[in-house]
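Section: Multi-chain targets

For targets with more than one molecule, the full set of components is provided together so that the structure can be written out for the assembly as a whole rather than chain by chain. Components appear in the order listed by the source. The example entry contains two components.
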Amino acid sequence: MKIIISNSSDEPIYEQISRQIKEMIIKGELEEGEILPSIRGLAKDLQISVITTKRAYEELEREGFIETVPGKGSFVAMQNKELMKEKKLKIIEEKLAEIVRESKMLGIGYEEIADMLKILFEEE
Amino acid sequence: MLEVINLTKNFGNFKLDNVSFKLEPGYIMGFIGPNGAGKSTTIKLIMNLLKKDSGEIRIFGKDHIKHEKEIKDRIGFVYDESFFYEDLSINQMKNIIAPFYSRWDNKKFDQYIKEFNLDPHQKIKKLSKGMKMKFSLALALSHNADLIIMDEPTSGLDPVFRREVLDILYDVIQDEGKSIFFSTHITTDLEKIADYITFINNGKIVFSKPKDEILETYGIVKGDNSLLDTDTRKEFIGLRVTKVGFEGLTDNPQKFRRKFGDSIIIEKPTLEDIMVYSVRSERL
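Its structure, encoded as tokens over all components, is:
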């Protein structure tokens, strides 16, 4: 598992952690049932406070990505396939929304974007 | 774990005034403030090295004087002044201190002495300030204490060893039943490790809150002097104005953003910024 935090980022540290773990789960790099580092161990490794890692894990728990068993640790939760699909679509939707905004700003129309997307898809 | 309620001590020229804060098991609290703010006095009162005028101190849920002996058995204490016999060696001094603790762990002590590169046969008067601090730390960490209390533990130490100390403190709190309370004016150490920050100034607690919450609340606002009118000035906790612009601390950066938009810069403060601006405004 790889987590890199930046102290100079505007994104709060707990969010940086929860976002990165979330991404790893969605991409399947972390599998269902896999054990996560302990809250206290992770605080030591990242040289941040226990409260911060705790908050990150609580966030992930609330959103259903991980489960914490008292005395045993935190695990990647069983993921609902449909929900997962939805989450993946959401990521793409956000990125596309950004492209739409940018296109409008630059005065590029839907047809052109659609063509471009089609070409890119076929090339990959 | 450690609870201080309305603690007051009057010295005439200085008064520790109604100090209250609480530390839960499993966390680290940093105790900050300028010199003479009352940090050492508070710690001495907690350790019952000074008699309080009024208020309550509860450690492990018990009164700190009524149960002093059993409480101190479970506290690892690091003090900023050396209270050792200068003519004894490290090991001789250790042999005097060890019997006071029911859970003394000699193996652990030897391990720390080795880790800290100390010679157990060296006389204490021959030790540098940093080495004495290391020795104190080794003593405090070698009797399985549940609460570590330290007064300026990192002040005489170089950055490399300070990092090592932080690592050792992280090791201590891997056990969620243990807590650490330490005073310091080196706030960069706390920016990493502390869960809670208690800030004392002029004998009074300014705040005692989770560090993340503090750093998310405050902001440093920078901008052109033409933006400063009397009302705006009042919004700052502390303000520094020079010929080329102003820089000030606020606990409501959003308000400034709404009022001035992009004509100002808002940055995240450090604990040091918060401390310095708060103390300055008090002295105005």
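The beta strands of chain A are 66-69, 73-76.
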